[in-house]
Fold this protein.
Amino acid sequence: MRLFLGRHAFPLAVGVFATVFLGLFFLLPLIKVFGASILDASGQGFTLSNYVNVLSNRFFLNGLTNSLGIAAAASICAVVVGVPFAFCLARLPIGGKPVLLALAALPLVLPSFVSAYALVLLFGRSGIATGALQSIGIPFDSIYGAKGIVVVYTLTLYPYVVLPVTAAFKSIDISVEEAAQNLGATRARMLRTVTLPLVLPSILAGGLLVFIESLENFGVPFVLAEDRPIISVEAYKLFVGETTDNPASAGVLGVLLVVCTVVALLIQRGVLARRHYATGARRSAPVMQVSPALRRLGAAYCWVVVAAALVPFAAVVVISFMPYSGPVLHYGFSTDNFTQLFQRSYRPLTNTLLLASLAACGATLIGVPIGYVVARQRSRLAALIDIVATSPFAIAGTVLGIGLVLTYSSGFLAMTGTWLIMVLAYMVRKLPFSVRSAGAILHQIDPSLEEASINLGVPPALTFLRITVPLMLGGIVGGFVLTFVTVASELSSTVVLYSGPWTTMTVAMFQALEGTSAGIAAAAATVLIICTVLPVALVYRLLRRHELSML
């Protein structure tokens, strides 16, 4: 009994801590949001009138329709762009694949609403590209509206499709394709009837991630939607505009966002449950032998997609060094935008770096042990913790922020308006990155090393720190950096939770966009890009040196 408790004390302690942490700062806030949606104006009695009022309001119904339609369109477009890209990387003999894959993944760590603002600078009503197109007689209105939002989501979220589908194309059992060709199928028919159906789970998984991210995104529709209602934005507006203690309408919209996400997950599971997708996988699929013209076409397609996704970020950096007179852009070089951005205070920048560092450290300290327990333990508790720990990815930041304010605005745990509640929100929102990166690397580490240490009398917790953690270093650092850069560009939960002293760079850009300070917004966008790209490049270089030193 003592031996059993000794071996399981560490996983049990991690499980208990994870349950308490996620219960207090994730599940309880969501329950509070749901509670707010079913309480009357006094906050005491049960009522469904809040749902009736919202769902009978044409404005909010249009917002729900717009949100679902844009998310669905973005998912389809991301799949259309990402699947051919993944096929070219996995199956065609094109050069520069590592560089292409790295550049393709870069939009995931860059702020999506910065890309939206860059497109406004280029294709807005007074945009540089808009003026150029109109001057040569090409009719072009602007990028505002649903079409612009879908374009931004497609260009920034298509990596969610590329990454899993590339791996799926590489893991197809080549004997299945050979059997189809031996039965007389042409290569095109084989791809359509054999290869694509086998990677359908990965396509659906990537499309679902795009749908969820599009549905909960706040910054992009704030920049591009204009007067078009979007649920994530309207939930924030309702929350900050509620005059009663019970934000019922905002709670209803928050619940609707969660319900839409759950329904999308159930639809994906239902589609996948109808068919069997497993193969023997005795041999992975090799690179196809194709004509030089097709190879060049595949390479050109990949580079065009990568350029289209990254050029807006490069454009906003260039534009940030050009002078503005109010909203009017002038050609030339100037650092006045940065001077105006920082002339009041460097606090937004220091706040961003401090809060991102604290959240990344906290998410790593909590997420890595959870990832260890989920990967090493086969129990119902571990499975439940895995589900709950990865669920924050599917919850809109505005919804979580509203829930945290409702939960911790009073009492002995009152934290509203402090830096602590912002860090906790970031930790919860980004915890899936640490859990998944730790779990993924653990699947490549032989558990016999840990078992040998424990059998020699070393406690499991000490074994984890001395043996497992050093072996997991690459995955831990990867999760830390991903958490840091995504927190630095976080807007949806920040805009609900921040107070004056804790303004971040995303909020500074948000406030500049609300006004007419286009130059300041461009400068803030450039600072955000540097805050995300620089850590990724630095850590990548350090890890490469570490790998070379191990050879």
